[in-house]
Amino acid sequence: MSGTLYLVPTPIGNLGDLSPRAVETLGAADFVAAEDTRVTLKLLNHFGIKKPLVAYYRHNTQAGGQAILRRLLAGENCALVSDAGTPAVSDPGEELVALCVAHGVPVTALPGPCALTTALSVSGLPTGRFTFEGFLAMNKKNRRDHLKSLEREARTMIFYEAPHKLASTLADLCQTFGPDRPVALCRELTKLHEEVTRTTLGQALARYQAEPPRGEFVLVVAGATPQAPPAASPEEALERVARLRETGLGLKEAVRQVAQELDIPRNRLYALAVEREK
Ligand code: SAM
To answer: Is 56 within 8 Å of 64 (Cβ atoms)?
Structure first.
């Protein structure tokens, strides 16, 4: 029988955020697969956990994934961790999970620290509906296409970004959504210098063009405000009434239908329609 792949979220800054269940799972696994074994070794040492470590990172997902899969199929349990946060969210763990699922290996996810949900919850922006956009592509065309697809997005949008690319990303977001769009810049979450700046894209851009950003950022951008459709003109309403009349409908019924459809006062439309038919 095959073993299980455990997805173990690790702190995004504050070591106190590693859950007791995460410690237990890391301690019980046969081996730990880590994005950067040096980073994870420090974490394991801090919690007094001794475990064989294997590297699983962006550029060895093929060979590394197959090696982990073989061990899982042979019955070993593996705990997968990323450098920080929840594995498989904007990191190569996604591919290992897909590989295990394809080979019928059980996958169990532990809930825990995640930069995306931490930023969303503290942003002060609507959380009822949101869309996670990860990192914007470096490639200009992909980046433009990605942003274009979001032009009319009404849900709150969440982006990950590296500090050296923050200013250019803010400039692109400003261009797509306008300088007045609200944004929460969530920096160094759970760390000593945690800072949440609730501002507009234009003001954020001005700030970070003038000062180099430091630390890790999540950008939470407000969705577009839904635009009310333009109100129908009296001529347009009367035109619709006339068309319905041509189908044989009585004046009152035609007016009732059009008034309901266009959400306009029925009495006023009726008076205008009577006037027109005189
Ligand atoms: N899988 C991780 C997660 O979802 O929690 C994220 C991995 S992704 C490679 C790294 C990105 O997460 C960073 O570039 C930054 O946008 C965000 N991030 C991670 N830790 C953060 C922190 N403490 N404060 C703000 N953003 C953070």
So the answer is: yes
Indicate if ligand 1 lies below 6 Å from the C-beta of 176.
no
Q: Is the CB of 35 under 6 A from ligand 1?
A: no
State the pLDDT at residue 54: 98
In the chain, DSSP finds a helix count (H) and a strand count (E) of 11, 10
What would you report as the CA-atom Rg of the chain, rounded to the nearest whole angstrom?
28
Using most ligand atoms within 8 A of CB, pick from 158, 218, 219, 220 the residue to mutate for ligand 1.
218
Bridge partners for 81 per DSSP: 34
Alpha helix stretches (DSSP H) within 74-114 = 93-102
DSSP string, 119-154: HHHHS-S--SSEEEEESPPSSHHHHHHHHHTTTT--
Is the C-beta atom of 13 inside 6 A of ligand 1? yes
Please tell me the distance from the alpha carbon of residue 214 to that of residue 218, in angstroms, as a whole number. 12
**What is the value of pTM for the model shown?**
0.83
**What is the SS3 assignment for 107?**
strand
188 CB within 6 A, ligand 1: yes
CA distance 91 to 159: 14
124-171 pLDDT per residue, tens: 999 999 999 999 999 999 999 999 999 999 999 999 999 999 999 999
Ligand 1 centre to CA of 260 (Å) is 50
Once rounded to an integer, what is the mean pLDDT over residues 62-86? 97
Give the chain's domains with CATH numbers: 5-109 (3.40.1010.10), 115-221 (3.30.950.10), 234-277 (no CATH)
- The residue-averaged pLDDT of 51-66 equals 96
Tell whether the model's pLDDT for residue 9 goes beyond 80: yes
Phi, psi of 75 (to 5 degrees): 110, 0
- Contact status, residue 30 vs residue 78, Cβ threshold 8 Å: yes
